[in-house]
Amino acid sequence: MIKLVTFDLDDTLWAVQPTMKRANRRLWEWLSNEAPAYVTRFEPSDLMEGSALRRALLERYPEIAHSMTEVRIRLLEEGMKEIGYSEAQAQELAASAFDHFMMHRNAVTPYDEAIPMLESLKAMELKIAALSNGNADVTQTPLAPWFDFQFNADLVGTAKPHRLMFDKALDRACAKACEAVHIGDHPINDIQAAKALGMHTIWVNPELTEWSVPAEADFHLDCLSEIPGVICQLSGR
Fold this sequence. Notes:
Largest sheet: 6 strands, parallel
Distance between the termini: 9 Å
Radius of gyration: 19 Å
Structural class: alpha/beta
């Protein structure tokens, strides 16, 4: 019997790239108004994964690498100090800038099949949880009504494929691994990690991403709408 269904979020229930592009654009507009010297000194790419500034930051603070929130706030703070703000001013501006960014980060557009699928799972009286390495807050998204709880890398202090996030979800739902299904798009962080714990796994790839390793999931689905049928099959319903 299945008791718990856990979902990755980005590129599993919504496309992350359009969301991030919009959120970063809105952040830069905010900075242009509130801290114009920042946008004169830096480029939007300086905040992105792979940038020289980001690499330098993580060399100094490797302990925050799991936290997209902490990395972005630190980059904003250090940039503010570099252009002349005091430490207190830099912290205040960075926090406000990040809050503005997150408002748009959480304004996701779910895939068309996401809400009907979640409604079907709720009708089956299942616990539904979000497990994400990203910093989206599912309670602030359009999918909030269908989720019972969430864990992400910021909250637990480590990212998937580490098992901690999965263990916390199982404990929270009072479920054994064999009573849970994890659904995600990443062959390692989602599928391999959950399968290693004994959870059932469903791989979905809505963005048709080409991965360098295969997703060795129990089920490979082309559409989110197929998920309730698979859960029924696993539950023997």
